């Protein structure tokens, strides 16, 4: 484990050195560059499906906006669990590699393609992108772009669309959450989990049951009503508190959690499958985990659903947006969500910021279940120096118990409250 951490740090160091070398060769210092006639930009590239070593930061020709597209100078990008699954090739119909990953970003409009109305150069925006988000510049159709409030930071904006739209769609469009209902959500400390918890709190008297790794409980305990360890027998725990079960089960794990979730539904309750995190059991795709998860999924007979008055649903935001043409519906949802943000009823929880060159470490943090809220790739952040300076302190990697696994961080607790919060949370365990 310690060796793995050191190897990763060395890899990052090499990436930084490589980038620095390129920049000096090109006579630049950050931002975009001109090589020959083509303007270039920094991007994260996935060279092939597999482990973290398939990710690189490299330079690519900068895109220009096509008809109906906006060109965005990216400030921050969201890193989601689905990005790990894409990296592994653990998704249906994966696109060809090499590819630039990432489905959401925030930034400033830099150019408008033909027939784009309602936006101006200089607008602060957040956007969905069908891949290619992890870059200094992104072009995406206008229907996937949303202006952001003046007081919303770019990090918050990059943490907003995927998590809050997914949570909102499931709770209000699919399951029709109303006053007095109860909801079970897994990975309650994660990006979607925290968005679900916040949206539930906008409706009176909603009971939220959450599962999460125990070390997160202190940090997130106020966001949900009841919290259980992710390994606990949550069916028993929920039934002890609510014998009839719950109205809504949000399942991002799949496998045997499908049957457990269905067994917890009250009459007229809704079960929604929206992820398959259980398929990710290591750095690379595991056929065994895939088969196990598939095999364990409860095979449902519609006649049983009819007799028991239960609803089963599935939800995929990316398919809804990019394959099923529902951008108009999603825009209305984003408008409602921005209204809630302006009323200070919801606020993205940002776990930590990472430079593009730190993408492997950022992904490792999710693999290690270390995050509370969303990870952000901050395009303007320089990678954390790997040598100590006057302000640095040695810090145990917060997501490992190995005492030899130490890295040097130049981020003081004042400027990096998340890491300080983690240290406090860990020391309480
Ligand atoms: N269908 C859609 O439209 C849609 C949209 C967004 C996200 N999703 C799904 O929603 C889920 C959450 O997504 P997110 O982006 O917000 O991520 P996230 O919850 O922040 O993901 C990280 C957390 O997931 C938990 N986890 C569960 N299984 C894991 C595993 N095998 N490996 C590592 N961590 C695991 C860990 O928390 P604990 O240890 O505390 O449980 C971890 O900290 C994912 O399944 C994702 O695919 C679906």
List the helices and strands and how they pair.
Blueprint: H1 2-26, E1 33-35, E2 38-46, E3 55-61, E4 69-79, H2 81-88, E5 104-112, E6 124-128, E7 137-141, E8 145-147, H3 154-158, H4 161-174, E9 182-185, H5 191-200, E10 207-212, H6 217-220, E11 226-229, H7 234-241, E12 246-251, H8 256-263, E13 265-273, H9 287-296, H10 302-308, E14 311-314, H11 317-322, H12 327-342, E15 350-354, H13 359-367, E16 374-378, E17 393-396, E18 406-409, H14 417-428
Helix pairs in contact: 4-5, 4-12
Structural class given helices, strands, pairing? alpha/beta
Uncertain spans: 1-32, 387-429
The helix fraction, in percent, is: 25-40%
Strand residue content: 15-25%
Q: Count of DSSP helices?
A: 14
- Envelope shape: globular
Protein name: Synaptic vesicle membrane protein VAT-1 homolog-like isoform X1
Domain Enoyl reductase (ER): 50-377
InterPro entries: ADH-like_N (IPR013154), ER (IPR020843), GroES-like_sf (IPR011032), NAD(P)-bd_dom_sf (IPR036291), Quin_OxRdtase/zeta-crystal_CS (IPR002364), SV-ATPase_mito-regulator (IPR052100)
Biased composition (Basic and acidic residues): 1-25, 416-429
């Amino acid at each position: 484990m310690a060796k793995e951490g050191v190897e990763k740090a060395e890899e990052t160091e090499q990436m930084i050195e490589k980038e620095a070398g390129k920049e000096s060769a090109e006579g630049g210092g950050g931002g975009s560059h001109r090589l020959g006639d083509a303007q270039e930009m920094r991007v994260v590239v996935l060279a092939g499906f597999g482990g973290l070593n398939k990710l690189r930061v490299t330079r690519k020709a900068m895109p220009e906006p096509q008809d109906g597209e906006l060109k965005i100078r990216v400030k921050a990008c969201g890193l989601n669990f689905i990005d790990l699954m894409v990296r592994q090739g653990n998704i249906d119909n994966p696109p060809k590699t090499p590819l630039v990953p990432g489905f959401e970003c925030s930034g400033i409009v830099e150019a408008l393609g033909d027939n784009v109305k309602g936006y101006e150069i200089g607008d602060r925006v957040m956007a969905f992108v069908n891949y290619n988000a992890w870059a200094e510049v992104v072009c995406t159709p206008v229907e996937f772009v949303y202006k952001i409030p003046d007081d919303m930071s770019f990090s918050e904006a990059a943490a907003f669309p995927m998590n809050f739209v997914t949570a909102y769609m499931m709770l209000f469009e699919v399951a029709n959450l109303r006053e007095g209902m109860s909801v079970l959500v897994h990975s309650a400390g994660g990006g979607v989990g925290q968005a679900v918890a916040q949206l539930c709190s906008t409706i009176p008297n909603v009971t939220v049951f959450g599962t999460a790794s125990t070390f997160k409980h202190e940090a997130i305990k106020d966001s949900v009503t009841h919290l259980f360890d992710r390994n606990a027998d949550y069916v028993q725990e929920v039934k002890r508190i609510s014998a009839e079960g719950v109205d809504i089960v949000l399942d991002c794990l799949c496998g045997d959690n499908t049957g457990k979730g269905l067994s917890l539904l009250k009459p007229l309750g809704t079960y929604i499958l929206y992820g398959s995190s259980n398929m990710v059991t290591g750095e690379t795709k595991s056929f065994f985990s895939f088969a196990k998860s598939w095999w364990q999924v409860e095979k449902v007979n519609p006649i049983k659903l009819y007799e028991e008055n239960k609803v089963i649903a599935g939800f995929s935001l990316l398919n809804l947006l990019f394959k099923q043409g529902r951008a108009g519906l999603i825009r209305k949802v984003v408008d409602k969500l921005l209204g809630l943000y302006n009323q200070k009823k919801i606020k993205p929880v940002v776990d930590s910021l990472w430079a593009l060159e730190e993408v492997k470490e950022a992904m490792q943090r999710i693999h290690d279940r270390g995050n509370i809220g969303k990870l952000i790739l901050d395009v303007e952040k320089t990678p954390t120096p790997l040598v100590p300076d006057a302000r640095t302190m040695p810090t145990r990697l917060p997501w490992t118990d190995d005492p030899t696994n130490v890295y040097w961080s130049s981020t003081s607790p004042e400027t990096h409250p998340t890491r300080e919060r983690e240290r406090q949370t860990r020391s309480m365990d």
